[in-house]
Amino acid sequence: MAGGPSVINITWGVNDMAGTKRRLQSHGAKDLFAASPDFTDLVGVGNALPTEARIVDTRGILGFNLELFGRFSNNMDEFLMNSFGHWNLTTPS
What we know:
By secondary structure, the chain is of the alpha+beta class. Helices cover 24% and strands 25% of the residues. The protein has a domain at 9-72: Roll (2,3-Dihydroxybiphenyl 1,2-Dioxygenase, domain 1), CATH 3.10.180. It has four helices and four strands. The termini are far apart. The model has no long low-confidence stretch (mean pLDDT 81).
């Protein structure tokens, strides 16, 4: 492991999680973490889609791990192109 600051994870949005997982596994990559997060509070009711997220150990292959997210909103382009100040963040009560 590096002795100082370094890139550890890079996040990518993927359209075909199952296919991406198969291709990475064929190169020896293994999941470190997998979940199905709910982005409703972030993107709004009616915009959130069921999705999958993974952290994949690709350090030996690429030098860093990959974080993979499936499409989590039907307004993804609008959501990603907004500044953080305009995101629909709510505080749980």
